[in-house]
Design a protein that fits this description.
Chain B: One of its GO terms (cellular component) is cytosol. The complex is a heterodimer. By secondary structure, chain A is α+β, with helices and mostly antiparallel strands. Chain A contains two helices and five strands. By secondary structure, chain B is of the alpha+beta class. Chain B has 27 helices and 45 strands. Classes of the chains: A alpha+beta, B alpha+beta. Chains A and B meet through helix 1 of A and helix 9, helix 16 and helix 18 of B.
Chain lengths: 131, 1173
Amino acid sequence: MAVCVAVIAKENYPLYIRSTPTENELKFHYMVHTSLDVVDEKVSAMGKALVDQRELYLGLLYPTEDYKVYGYVTNSKVKFVMVVDSSNTALRDNEIRSMFRKLHNSYTDVMCNPFYNPGDRIQSSRPSTPW
Amino acid sequence: MEWRRSYGRAPKMIHLESNFVQFKEELLPKEGNRALLTFPFLHMYWTECCDTEVYKATVKDDLTKWQNVLKAHSSVDWLIVVVENDAKKKNKTNILPRTSIVDKIRNDFCNKQSDRCVVLSDPLKDSSRTQESWNAFLTKLRTLLLMSFTKNLGKFEDDMRTLREKRTEPGWSFCEYFMVQEELAFVFEMLQQFEDALVQYDELDALFSQYVVNFGAGDGANWLTFFCQPVKSWNGLILRKPIDMEKRESIQRREATLLDLRSYLFSRQCTLLLFLQRPWEVAQRALELLHNCVQELKLLEVSVPPGALDCWVFLSCLEVLQRIEGCCDRAQIDSNIAHTVGLWSYATEKLKSLGYLCGLVSEKGPNSEDLNRTVDLLAGLGAERPETANAAQSPYKKLKEALSSVEAFEKHYLDLSHATIEMYTSIGRIRSAKFVGKDLAEFYMRKKSPQKAETYLQGALKNYLAEGWALPITHTRKQLAECQKHLGQMENYLQTSSLLASDCHLTEEERKYFCQEILNFASQQSDSLGHKIVLPMHSFAQLRDLHFDPCNAVVHVGGILSFEITMCSQMPVPVHVEQIAVNVHFSVEKNSYRKTAEWLTKHKTSNGIINFPAETPPFPASQNSLPALELYEMFERSPSDNSLNTTGIICRNVHMLLRRQESSSSLDMPSGIALEEGVHVLKCSDVTLEPGPNRITFRTQAKEPGTYTLRQLCASVGPVWFVLPHIYPIVQYDVYSQEPQLHVTPLTDSLLAGIPQKVKFTVTTGHYTIKNGDSLQLSNAEAMLILCQTENRAVIYSNTRAPAPGGESDMLGTPEPHRKHKDKQKTGHCMVTTDHKVSIDCPWSIYSTVISLTFSVPFQTTHALLSAGTRKYVQVCVQNLSELDFQLSDSNLIDTGDSTDLHLIPLNTQSQQRISSKQSVFFVWELKWTQEPPPSLHCQFSVGFSPTSEERLSVSLKPYTYEFQVENFFTLYNVKAEIFPTSGMEYCRTGSLCSLEVLITRLSDLLEADKDESLTESDEYFSTKLMYEVVDNSSNWAVCGKSCGVISMPVAAQATHRVHMEVMPLFAGYLPLPDVRLFKYLPHHSAHSSQLDADSWIENDSLSVDKHMDDPLDSSSVKSRGSVHSTSSGEHKGLPMPRLQALPAGQVFNASAGMQILVIPSQDDHVLEVSVT
């Protein structure tokens, strides 16, 4: 289970960000924001290397003492960032990938909603349930 | 040497180093010995015995013994070297080569492996033979050695695997296994197979990690408890020595802690990686390791004194960094900052937490408890390692120094932080740099130097604002507020406070606190007037909408205009605002038309509500967040004729869209707000703004005409002014001044004379206020009646909102129905119009207003005189030209000439007749007289009419009248024409001549009307000259011979003249007879003309035809004839010209008019034209 999940617009403002320990929300906001540095770095490095067959999953962005931050970027440059507890060793790369895929599907569903205005903040229909 | 390995591993070139050791039995490996490095791979027996006897006596025994020992240790790798010496050989020449020592040895020992015995000849001599034997020996030695090595290594690996498989057994020890696998690693390292060596360590690493994870999952292994002992030493990684024997021994002794094991393992990995030229991987792995260790210690629930791990991590980070720096040059390091910066930042973080832990960050310095903790931490570091003891800058020294005093800590911490920020910035990780900067700012705040903190906080805030991260913005702002408060930047502090007070991410208490800060400041400073603090409004309150009253936002000079604004207070508590003011910009409108009431009414928003777009909360300056294009159609019409000049699309909010991007990022810079000092200010005092929407009403009395634009909105709380610098969209109201105007317009397209119609009086009151009792006085011509309904006096009932601004009243101005009556219309043309002027006295002006109304006559009337022999009829035709239908009644024709003997007998049966639009109605009267009728008759036709569409009218309408005159209506001549077929024929035939007989009969004696110059008198016998003419306009007849002639007609009743002519029908069928026309033939001089033969005269002279208006003469024939003769008219110059005058229509009765005669076609007429339709 991820402790924090964020969907970040192309322009780097958060479309959706939610963390499970709500008391420490601020820390995760900072963490996700800082991780955008690495996302940018990876995306620009990737742009040069693999244009056609692009891997959306960016892998581990950076580890911290307590958390691991993973990144994923859609073709429209919307970024997904997921923070996972370092002690949670059950989550391997594959699990993270599948979580991102699920997240991507959910995001696509949101975009398909005709009442959703692209660029607006995303409201979760399940207020306190993290991915 | 090429090394071929089992399991399909690729052959490699290796370098195998070997030591030569004197054989001792105790050196031989015992069962279970794992030391691979000191393993005796190959045993050699050297002998230089060349004497068979000696061999048999001693050497053979010795060899046997050696072999037995080897066998006992199951070692099969041996070699016997026999050194042959020529010098010695010479002494024993009798020895046969066959039975040489070598052969004997081979026989005795190498029964199957003859290659296990090598001969080395004269090793000290320099001959080719010697060389050869040496080479052979060395090759053999290498091959055998490698063979043995491979065999033994394979065995070792197998053993190791076996050992690893036993790891689930209870007595299994990781340390033991560690040593075994490390042995393998050492061997690979020795072989310079660093990759393989690294693999061994990585395997160990992974195995250990897995055990820790399993332990966390509850699957503990006994041996792991060794590693769970409390951490007592945290002296960091040691990477300077290739092998840290101290740690290795502790592992061997199974005394190592988790940190020791990890440190040792990493130091080995680091060494190998550096051998492999991969320093950046070291940095990366180091960071992973450090994080991992911290996690593992947590997972294993190892007790660690507070700060110990921080020390360990800090030292390790620096150690790794220094190690990397030691093996790379500057340029390499600079280009690989991305790999190392994580370590820097981690070290900074750890040093910071150490600083906080040891009380080095607080203002007062560490207290005794802090000091105790520091001492404990330093104790855990132990003594400095000997290898770094002499270095000026070792991690150990750094940490020790940093923890020693507040100043030293500050220095080290700042160094590290700045270095980290610089590195992050240089590789473009701005966000990370800002984040470190924020930590630094926090540190500065603790150190009470807010001025240094501010720049970092501002930088970070700007970054968060630009990317729209609400929570970080709030948090950073909170820090910034504190900083600004310490700095005494009141204005900035208040602004930040206002932003925070309106920030929904803060708790209610925090918001109230910041709001209270503002209010406190405002109340404190209220005494010292003159100093204002101007803050942007949007954080304090937001303008939501504005509502004008009157809703078209147009007011007359002197009128009252009010507007109500809805302000959403963002403050958490009610705020008492001393004054809310709207700055108004006044401009005199150039276009005078714009000031008129109609224009203003038409062009304003109808409901008078202006909505303001909600201010976008901290949203980034992205393409998406830009406001939508506001496009409008634009039509520009020429002022003169209202024709379209230009059209296009304009964008109303260009200034928003084309704004530079950078400027938008500095959204909350307070410097941009300038207070406008306007003359026109609308104020509202003492308002309490409750949280949420508040409605505030402003009132103003309009003074000067022009356009007023609302520019700024200020709310003042003491000396604090919240200013909305621009009100957008533009809000304007107009004040205009206009003279009262009166317009009178018909309700229909045009006014018709004779019937009641409504006209609308439009009073545009303008600046005039209508009072009760004001009236309009109308003075009109008599011909036009004003009909008033009983309930409607000519009094202006003004609208109830009489003093309202002028824009309203023009439509509401009381329309007064008046009925106009128009009579007496004589001339008969297409919708004759007459103008009537009405003079109106208005109460607001001393002058009368003269208004001209145009009425059209709905009818056109014509009359005609009809004859039947001597009986006369008058026909009147009334044509309705208007669009309305009328009912005609009471038609009447009277003689106005007072001739009593004349009677007009109407032949009209219906008294009521309907006349539709564009239709005609005819009326006929018969004229009867008893005495001789007068030469002329004056008649007046009158008919009553009323519009059919309207309901019965209360007023009686005047009839329509038409006056006309009929002259010479008495019949004088009767003309009768007859056509007879040629004699003998029954019918006329086409192409054959027929005779036309014209009979002209005078019907009366001389009458008064008949007296004119054509009359010639001779012996009381009057005669008159008449010209007849036969004309066939329809070309049915061809007149043969003369078609006209002059006759002298005696003026007496029943005088008759008969004329014969030949005519030829041109067509068959019933043909109308040709016309016979009579003219008066007037001689110019009666004396002269009487002499002339009329026929010849006409033929020879030019004829002047006095043509009258309705001359029925075929003018073309006369003209052509005249023109033919005019060429020869020169000799007749001066001759008097006779004139022709048409007889009035009433005087001639054509008895044969309308008669037809049957003409049958001639028999030789072959061509028959038939047209069938």
